[in-house]
Amino acid sequence: MKIFNLSMECYPVAKVGGLADVVGALPKYLNKIEGVEASVIMPWYNKPFVHNHEFEVVFDGRIHQSVHMFQVQVMKEKSQSLGFDLYLVKIPGLLDRDNPYGYWDESQQFLAFQHGVLHWLSAMQIRPDILHCHDYHTGLVPFMIENCPEFNFLKGVKTIGTIHNGEYQGQMRWDMANYMPWFYGEQWGLLDWAGYINPLATMIKCCHAFNAVSDGYMHELFQSFRGLESLVQQEGAKAYGIINGIDTEVWDPKTDAFLDFNFTKENAFEGKRKNKKSLCEEYGLNPELPLFSFIGRFAGEKGADLLPEIVRKSIQETNGSLNIIILGSGEKYIENHLAELSSTFSNFALDLGYKEHLSHKIYASSDFLLMPSRVEPCGLNQMYAMRYGTVPIVRYIGGLRDTVEDISTGGSGINFGSATANDTVAAMHRALHIYHEPGLMEKLVQSNMNFNFSWENSAQKYLELYKR
Ligand code: ADP
Ligand code: GLC
User: Fold this and answer.
1) Does 280 share its domain with 429?
2) Same domain, yes or no, for 301 and 226?
3) Residues 460 and 440 in one domain
4) H or E, element range at 2
5) How many domains does the chain have?
6) Would you say residue 357 lies in a domain?
7) Contact 421, 306 (CB under 8 A)
8) Distance from the alpha carbon of residue 20 to the mean position of ligand 2, in angstroms
9) Are residue 351 and residue 438 in the same domain, yes or no?
10) Residues with Cβ < 8 Å from 101, sequence gap 6 or more?
11) What is the pTM (predicted TM-score) of this model?
């Protein structure tokens, strides 16, 4: 079975968040199953990975967008070191950028990617069994292969759409239809939602099956989906929930090259203590205190706007008997507020930016990881934390609810109810009790490390869906 994953991100080529981790791992684990051949197709970016690897040009063609003509080159990575074939689509002017997102013309950029991929596959007569589209950026593909005569060769190819984040739907004004490959005009209704072209809605309407990245989140989408509730209800028969896995080869405390001290389940308590000591020394924190951390995008979904209040309140209410470290970037007002607090409180360290190596160190060194998310389709941080023996403190929602059980009901994490600073800090007080209870932390470190979130299980679920 031949599967092409279409995505804007893929670890380690280009990563903004969890989408990259998923697309960099799922095909690798699928390829371990006999008879499966999974690859990744993504845009070309001006990134170190691209410059440090060799590629061969496998296609060179042209596409038209409105009155403009663009060159499309497809490059295949030569070494296959990722565990899957990697194809990069380069379109000078649109797909040759530094980063996946954040450009004023990104609707046109995403359209060009989808158009370029389908043009290449049709021209070279490459017909996969499954086109697996990730998020709205590739959501028009299921429509295009059925309704654009240019891609007739691909008609009937089965499509799966994965919703990593329903908050982003890619709405664009109808005049952007000029930038689409020519389509049968009478099918416009498949593109429309509430007067806009809505690529995520189109994906749900046109794909053969769609899934959210956890069961919990799929259930939530039926109730609350930024205006698409009735659509998901109507198309409910093809809706699935498949929880993400983690790449346990990349995320392994035993071999992780980013850690100061590697450790296994057997010496985890000691190993974590040593990592914590060196991290705390680096950031001027007292290593004897319990360490709470947050890693992520400073966005409303992640509850990042609550962080300043969480920091202030928790340090004041405990008279400074805990440490907090935050790694992330995003909304400027949150960055500024946190920066102010880090110069006020010696128990609080802040590192602004995106730092892959530091994230590994923090997962390994922390006692507790905070996730006060408002929306969390799956969440990978809690799984990385658990793999590194850290106790997750999570809001009971979406994928967090599916992966972290509270200690009071036999789990080894902490759940709390609402995305407020009060609830989060109350959960931190619970955490401190646990921390000071003799022997309990050792037990929790162990039981968290015993969880198996490997992709093997979830890859099997995707395969079942492809077969269906
Ligand atoms: P999302 O994709 O919504 O941001 P996930 O929990 O699925 O959330 O995945 C986030 C991924 O991005 C994890 O691999 C996490 O470690 C990583 N990450 C987030 N922010 C940073 C950062 N500032 N530096 C390094 N890694 C980060
Ligand atoms: C999105 C979601 C996150 C999920 C990730 C990978 O970014 O916000 O919860 O883990 O996609 O599926």
Assistant:
1) yes
2) no
3) no
4) strand 2-6
5) 2
6) yes
7) yes
8) 9
9) yes
10) 8, 16
11) 0.96
Supply the residue whose CA is at minimum distance from atom 22 of ligand 1: 354
Q: What is the CATH number of the domain that holds 399?
A: 3.40.50.2000
| 379 Cα: distance to centroid of ligand 2 (angstroms) | 5
Judgement on whether residues 241 and 278 belong to the same structural domain of the protein? no
pLDDT averaged over every residue in the chain? 97
> Considering only CA atoms, which of 10, 71, 20 is closest in space to residue 42?
10
Q: Are residues 181 and 327 in the same domain?
A: no
Q: In this predicted structure, what is the pLDDT of residue 217?
A: 98
Mean pLDDT of 294-301: 97
30-62 pLDDT tens trace: 999 999 999 999 999 999 999 999 999 999 999
What does the CA dihedral 102, 103, 108, 109 come to, rounded to 10 degrees? Answer: -70
Mind listing the pLDDT tens digit for each residue in 243-294? 999 999 999 999 999 999 999 999 999 999 999 999 999 999 999 999 999 9
Residue range(s) defining the domain that contains residue 344: 268-452
> Residue 206 C-alpha to ligand 1 middle, in angstroms?
30
Q: Which residues line ligand 1 (CB under 6 A)?
A: 17-19, 21, 295-297, 327-329, 354-356, 359, 378-381
Per residue in 173-214, pLDDT tens?
A: 999 999 999 999 999 999 999 999 999 999 999 999 999 999
- Assess if residue 331 is contained within a domain: yes
108 and 85 within one domain? yes
Any residues with CB less than 8 A from the CB of 66 and at least 6 apart, and which?
A: 178, 179
